[in-house]
């Protein structure tokens, strides 16, 4: 056994056993059923029963799947107004979502409204830059979670958008918004360091790209190097393929977002290649390979 | 158990464990293999998942019964767009008339941002469901008593996005300023000592969509949900034999 892994790295065998399939959604906005056939846009698209089928198909083919969401599960159809998010959480639990983060619309029924529905979700909400101390939601969320998949440790953390000005004051109460970049740096250090993760994913509800100084996924990728994949939301951005942000020492961060309302399910496949053992976060490299 | 080992043996065992775990951890480079399109469309080419369908069914029945009720007819879709839009005009106008009726006083301005309207009203039969999609939020219609200086801030804000207001017209100058503001067809003077009444959602009145200049004003509630105000207006039009329609009519002009 090459103790330091300095022997010729084995080529990444793209076999099912070695492959991690990441499926993701963002901004599903209570779109339980597909857009109606007479909708001005997206007629017939979306629908959670259709999505569940697609997810099941992938799970039948692939042993290692992570199913993630980037927030704004709620608000947009009468299902939310009538049942206050209960059905969305139940369906996501049935689809076996592994984690979500919190979007601004997930506060639309206030902290109590969120608290009330949490028992319907069997998956955790990961959020690292909201401090709920002194609210009814104190201690109810984890900043990150490490998943063991395909023999590897996958670190997933969540980042939310600034609530003031976007969510009514009474709906977020004493929740404190912490600087996303500084928080992300801490998360990367922890996940790359003591948590020994091979892949670091951020569920972001910050938004894709803004003019000016407002934090977005690109500023996050540049400001907190070492994230492999940012699964974004909030801006309802449709991307056919992820954007690539080059970081220090050849590291690359991918940014992906798949529109809204469950019109798309994002899919990214990762394989794990034995590399040179390096102590530093920034030394890992991620090279997107376009399939022919 | 540790007394069974010599101190040295225990240490070397620990070291071996640490090394072997070190070999397995952080020694891997994650490589994405991306499909040409990573966004997989979800639509009718996929079968319905029976488990999900069964979970949805009882909820669906309760929603459809109430949402399918037709409350009006629109000859063409009422859409939102950047700047002045038919949909925002329709809603801002009914906010003003409804607030006026509820509080029994004239209301100078109606304010609704395009961002607050979540879906167009479709052409043809307008159902209660359409109104829910347009206005899913539990927002209340409120009235603000705004001094002229705050009204000026509102128009400055509006000029950035060429946003229209019910009860007013103005022109956006080439440098992006609101000029030639007329409220109730009277020229507006920001220096005058006068309070203007504004019909608006409690969300925007509380500083939502960055209308922070409203935050210092205490809103007067009407007790009417904005969604209900919209549905009521459509029902009223239907009762009068009128269609649901609204136009872009030059509430915001631009000199550039």
Q: SSE order of chain A, as H and E?
A: EHEHHEHEEEHEHEHEEEEE
- Mean of residue pLDDT values of chain A: 89
Oligomer: heterodimer
Structural class of chain B: alpha+beta
Secondary structural class of chain A: alpha/beta
Distance between the termini of chain B: 84 Å
Radius of gyration of chain A equals: 19 Å
Strand content of chain A: 15-25%
What's the count of strands of chain B? 12
The level of helicity of chain A is: 10-25%
Folded structure, characterized:
The complex is a heterodimer of chains A (292) and B (256). Mean pLDDT of chain A is 89; it is low at 1-11 and 277-292. In chain A, the strands form three sheets. In chain A, strands 5-6-8-9-11-10 form a six-stranded mixed sheet, with helices on one face. Chain A has a four-stranded mixed sheet with strand order 3-2-1-12, with helices on one face. Chain A is built from seven helices and 13 strands. Chain A is of the alpha/beta class and 292 residues long. Chain B has seven helices and twelve strands. Mean pLDDT of chain B is 88; it is low at 1-25. The chains are: A alpha/beta (292), B alpha+beta (256). At the A-B interface, helix 1, helix 2, helix 3, strand 12 and strand 13 of A face helix 1, strand 1, strand 2, helix 2 and helix 4 of B. Strand 13 of chain A pairs parallel with strand 1 (28-34) of chain B.
Topology:
The complex is a heterodimer of chains A (292) and B (256).
Chain A: E1 19-25, H1 48-61, E2 65-69, H2 78-83, H3 86-94, E3 99-100, H4 110-117, E4 130-131, E5 144-149, E6 152-159, H5 169-172, E7 176-177, H6 180-192, E8 199-204, H7 217-223, E9 229-231, E10 243-246, E11 252-256, E12 264-274, E13 289-290
Parallel strand pairs in A: 1-2, 2-3, 6-8, 8-9, 9-11
Antiparallel strand pairs in A: 1-12, 4-7, 5-6, 10-11
Chain B: H1 7-24, E1 28-34, E2 39-41, H2 50-67, E3 70-74, H3 86-103, E4 109-110, E5 124-127, H4 128-134, E6 140-147, H5 148-161, E7 168-172, E8 178-183, E9 186-187, E10 195-201, H6 202-205, E11 220-225, H7 226-239, E12 252-254
Helix pairs in contact in B: 3-7
């Amino acid at each position: 056994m090459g103790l330091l892994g300095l022997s010729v790295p084995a080529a990444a065998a793209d076999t099912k056993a070695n492959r991690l399939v990441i499926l993701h959604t963002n901004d599903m906005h209570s779109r339980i059923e597909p857009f109606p056939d007479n909708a001005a846009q997206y007629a017939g698209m979306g629908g959670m029963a259709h999505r569940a089928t697609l997810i099941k198909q992938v799970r039948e083919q692939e042993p290692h799947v992570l199913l993630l969401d980037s927030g704004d599960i709620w608000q947009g159809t009468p299902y939310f107004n009538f049942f206050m998010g209960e059905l969305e959480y139940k369906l996501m639990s049935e689809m076996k979502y592994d984690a979500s983060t919190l979007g601004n619309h997930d506060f639309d029924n206030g902290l109590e409204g969120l608290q009330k529905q949490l028992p319907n979700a069997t998956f955790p909400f990961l959020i690292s830059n909201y401090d709920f101390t002194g609210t009814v939601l104190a201690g109810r969320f984890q900043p990150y979670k490490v998943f063991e998949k395909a023999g590897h440790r996958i670190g997933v953390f969540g980042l939310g958008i600034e609530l003031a000005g976007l969510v009514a004051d009474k709906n977020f109460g004493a929740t404190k918004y912490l600087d996303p970049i500084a928080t992300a740096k801490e998360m990367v250090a922890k996940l790359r360091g003591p948590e020994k993760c091979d892949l670091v994913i951020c569920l972001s509800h910050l938004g894709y790209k803004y003019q000016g100084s407002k934090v977005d996924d690109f500023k996050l990728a540049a400001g907190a190097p070492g994230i492999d994949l940012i699964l974004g939301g909030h801006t309802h951005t449709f991307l056919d393929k992820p954007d690539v942000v080059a970081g220090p020492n050849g590291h690359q961060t991918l940014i992906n977002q798949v529109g809204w309302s469950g019109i798309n399910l994002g899919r990214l496949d990762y394989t794990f290649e034995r590399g040179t053992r390096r102590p530093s976060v920034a030394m890992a490299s991620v090279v997107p390979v376009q399939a022919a | 158990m540790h007394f069974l080992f010599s101190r040295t043996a225990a240490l070397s065992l620990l070291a071996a464990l640490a090394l072997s775990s070190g070999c397995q951890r952080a020694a891997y480079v994650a490589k994405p293999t991306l499909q040409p399109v990573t966004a997989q469309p979800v639509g009718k080419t996929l079968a319905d998942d029976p488990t999900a369908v069964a979970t949805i069914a009882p909820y669906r029945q309760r929603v459809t019964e109430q949402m399918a009720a037709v409350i009006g007819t629109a000859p063409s879709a009422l859409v939102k767009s950047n700047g002045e839009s038919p949909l925002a005009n329709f809603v801002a106008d009914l906010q003003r008339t409804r607030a006026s009726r509820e509080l029994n006083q004239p209301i100078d301005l109606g304010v609704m941002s395009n961002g607050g309207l979540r879906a167009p009203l479709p052409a043809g039969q307008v159902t209660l469901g359409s109104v829910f999609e347009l206005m899913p939020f539990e927002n209340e219609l409120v009235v603000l008593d705004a001094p002229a200086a705050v009204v000026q801030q509102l128009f400055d804000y509006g000029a950035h996005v060429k946003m229209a207001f019910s009860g007013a017209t103005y022109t956006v100058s080439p440098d992006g300023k609101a000029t030639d503001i007329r409220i109730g067809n009277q020229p507006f003077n920001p220096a005058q000592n006068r309070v203007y009444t504004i019909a608006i959602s409690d969300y925007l009145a509380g500083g939502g969509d960055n209308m922070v200049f409203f935050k210092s004003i205490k809103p007067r509630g009407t007790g009417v949900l904005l969604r209900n105000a919209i549905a009521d207006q459509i029902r009223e039009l239907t009762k009068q034999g009128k269609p649901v329609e609204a136009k872009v009519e030059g509430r915001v002009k631009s000199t550039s």
